[in-house]
Amino acid sequence: MISAPFRRPASRATLLTLSLGHGCADLCSGALFALLPFLVVERHYSYAAAGVFALIASAASAVFQPLVGAQGDRTEAHWLLTAGLIVTGLGMGAVGFASSYPLTLLAVAICSAGAATFHPEGARWARHVASSRVTADMSVFSVGGGVGYALGPLVVAAALVPFGLHGTAVIALVPLAAAAVVGVALRRFHARPASAHGLPRQAEPLGSEWRPFACLAALFCVACGVTTGLLTYVPLFLVQARGTSPGTANVMSSVLLGAAAAGTLLGGVAAQRFGRRLVLLVPQLLLVPAIALLPSLSYGAMIPVVALIGLSMNANVSVALVLAQEYLPARMGLATGLTIGLCGGVGGLVAAALGLLGDAAGPSSVLYAIAALPLVVAVLALRLSRPLAAPPETVWSLRAEAGR
Description:
The chain has 14 helices and no strands. By secondary structure, the protein is mainly alpha-helical.
């Protein structure tokens, strides 16, 4: 269900609180990838083992998010927001204390499942409290996750340098504290009169557009493969091909993720003003030469190129999330779970396959393979249609606007 949204003063505060929770959940998701160089050095993981690590992190999200999203659509299970953050913290804390590779993978799965539990319900409520500038407002929710991812590698470096792998217990405090903040904010929000919640007063049923949603899901699967591949193999390329330390490699991850957070916000604003199709298409065309250039660059020269890659790779995140909710307006939680969760799981499969390629052909081959994937994203973007449930003021493409 969907209706014309309206804004109350409490809506902005709720949106920012949801963005904070999103950031703390995704900080742990980003931290999992940032742990890989330390695990490779201290526990001697191979490229294939690192790929399986990334696969488990993504697969847990793929399994839980659609289920949690469907449950939220039926019951509006607000408790999932705080529960997800608590489970995320417990899993993160356990990663550094696991005594074997299988136990490490189990802890990774628990951490990822907790983060997955937060996302569908958080995104569904963020859409409810958004104003008519829905793409820009949803980018505020999405950018929280981007900032969290960006901080993940820095937090890992700060926690693991003094404490070793046991420093994951320190990282776990972040989502646990966020659970308390989000829980208090939601209790205050629900204590307000219904008219002050900023929720739709009246819901208007609209049909589901499954065919364009399937195309969008395929697009986001490939895009997640690009993101997961870069997060996994850019730092490993630096460690194994360039001989940098894990901490130095994580600095590059922070550059990538910091730029990605900015790209999320800029992408939402640009889509609101210049058209959603442009934001879905143009950044992908920039990614191809930028990623292909990385193996030939020195560490210092990689920094501005990686920043451009980060800006481009996440520009479509809030647009894809909004489109998913508009293609399935009566199942927004399920749409979010499938888009972020299932597509992220497929991205993990791509990362695992790239790990096999890296062991067979070397680190540079992985980056060249990743560089080809944005072309697939661009082709799929051209096939997407404007959702029937999109707000009337939505800008879809510059050509369409000029023809009005």
